[in-house]
Amino acid sequence: MIKEQATYEAPKYVVALVAHAQAKIARVHWSAFRTIWDGSADPAIEKIGWSVQTLPDASKRTHLSFESVELQWTTSPKAANYDMNANVSWSPAEWVSWFDRLMLVIGN
Fold first, then answer.
1. How far are the Cα atoms of 13, 33, 45, 53, 71 from residue 10, in angstroms, in the given order?
2. At residue 79, what are phi and psi to the nearest 5 degrees?
């Protein structure tokens, strides 16, 4: 049996938090491998799930999972912005707490 999962639009500040996490992943990747992280490859950080799927119209659907949170967004070469979906609907304090734990897992 497939379990139905609720989907909510993530607040814009969550988009900003995730962008900051991506930048930190890139810095950590550079420090470890001396190569640029392209944002598509799995950064291979324990406890963090990351995948990118290229769609037929050249858009990319990115999926980030950490703890019980699943985030998904689609970027397009034609659009400058994007909407992010989450499987949770949290208060700002809950998002900040989650983000702080994510930053600790990403490391220095």
1. 8, 32, 23, 20, 8
2. -120, 140
Q: At what angle do helices 92-106 and 12-33 cross, to 10 degrees?
A: 10
- Enter the DSSP assignment of 78: T
Domains of the chain, residue spans: 40-108
**Would you write out the chain's pLDDT as a tens digit for each of its 108 residues?**
445 678 999 999 999 999 999 999 999 999 999 999 999 999 999 999 999 998 888 889 999 999 999 999 988 877 766 789 999 999 999 999 999 999 999 996
Please check whether residue 98 is in contact with residue 79, taking contact to mean a CB–CB distance below 8 angstroms.
no
Report the 10 Å Cβ neighbour count for 63: 14
> Which secondary structure element, helix H or strand E, spans residue 97, and what is its range?
helix 92-106
- Write down the pTM of the prediction: 0.88
